[in-house]
Design brief:
By secondary structure, this protein is α+β, with helices and mostly antiparallel strands. It contains seven helices and ten strands. An eight-stranded antiparallel beta barrel has the order 1-3-4-5-6-7-8-10.
């Protein structure tokens, strides 16, 4: 009777006895210890090695395969791969070497002592294993990227839904070529001045309307644009003593980084330029302004998009007299035209 058949019949007998006597199955599992299987596998493997050394490859293959029926050891796969390579079955040899690398990633074949057929099969197996690892890694990154992309899209869609109409199906920024094109924008917003108390003349100015116009050019660099914009804001004090209005006009140049997410274009800008401010007819000052901007643009047609953005600007010299710096934070809702 074949050894595997004997083991199977023994297990069935022990299982039947366990069911009849109520003995726990854990004792049944101990009836065929791993050591016994390993010993048997080792004996068969040595027979296979002797056949391999005698160039009796059918005998070697049969013994190596039988040894693997008892226990899955890397050395059994190695010698089976040697046998396949020696009999010009390269694909089977590569498959066995892949199994070896899965069990022992640091395994190597000595090119000085092994035949070119074996070395070639092993190199192909290494490349195949490497490709499998890279594919698995890429799948992880692509899934992570898809998750982040979906999170951005859902978040932006939720925030902008009350303001931006739904985009027509198939109209997305990802499919809109930007290279060599210009983007013109006009926007209306709310400006909030900060650190703007005018000494001896009243309290802070209240939030009020702001106007913005901008131009951006998209060179042959992905996710990049540059341009300039002008912002005018007038903030008033109502029912308070002191100055009635604070007017600020700024002109800045900017660098922009942007990223398309389906129907939305995320963008962020860093800017610097000059500003002119005036409080009623009392003062008029010119100075330096720097700041940043971030926002999102949604396509309405293939050329027209709606935009929501927020800006933070610091003005030095142009602002409230006696203040080292005056800040303003305008928020804009605007219209873009791509040409």
């Amino acid at each position: 009777m074949k050894p595997l058949l004997q083991i199977r019949n023994g297990l069935l007998a022990i299982l039947a006895a366990s069911v009849l006597t109520g003995a726990p199955l854990s004792h049944a599992a101990e009836a065929v210890p791993d050591a016994e299987a390993q010993t048997k596998a080792g004996q068969i493997f040595r027979k296979g090695q002797k056949c391999y050394e005698d160039l009796n490859y059918p005998c070697a293959e049969a013994n190596f395969r039988e040894a693997l029926n008892y226990t899955d050891e890397a050395r059994f796969h190695v010698h089976l791969a040697y046998t396949y390579a020696a009999t010009d079955r390269q694909k089977l040899a590569v498959d066995e070497f892949v199994k070896v690398l899965a069990l022992e990633p640091d395994f190597a074949v000595d090119s000085k002592t092994q035949s070119p057929k074996i070395v070639r099969a092993f190199e192909l197996a290494k490349e195949q294993a490497r490709s499998a690892r890279e594919t698995a890694r890429e799948n992880i990154f692509s899934k992570g990227s898809a998750f982040i992309d979906e999170l951005f899209r859902d978040t932006i869609s939720t925030v902008t839904k009350p303001f931006i109409p739904e985009q027509p199906q198939g109209l997305v920024w990802k499919d809109t070529p930007l290279t060599g094109k210009s983007r013109y924008s006009v926007a209306l917003g709310l400006n909030i001045p900060v650190n703007d108390e005018y000494a001896g003349r009243g309290d802070a100015f209240e939030p009020d309307l702001a106007l913005m116009g901008s131009y951006a050019y998209h060179p042959k660099i992905n996710h990049f644009a540059f341009g300039g914009r002008v912002i005018y804001s007038r903030n008033k004090q109502r029912d308070k003593p002191g100055p009635v209005s604070l007017d600020i006009l700024s002109a800045t140049g900017f660098l922009e980084l942007h990223h398309p997410v389906d129907a939305f274009l995320l963008f962020a800008r860093a800017e610097a330029g000059t500003a002119l401010s005036g409080i009623d007819s009392l003062t008029e000052e010119q100075g330096f302004v720097t700041g940043g901007c971030a926002g999102v643009s949604a396509l309405v047609t293939d050329r027209v998009s709606l935009e929501i953005s927020g800006t933070f600007q610091a003005m030095f010299g142009a602002g409230i007299p006696g203040k080292d710096a005056t800040f303003r934070t305008p928020f804009f809702f605007g219209l873009n035209y791509l040409y």
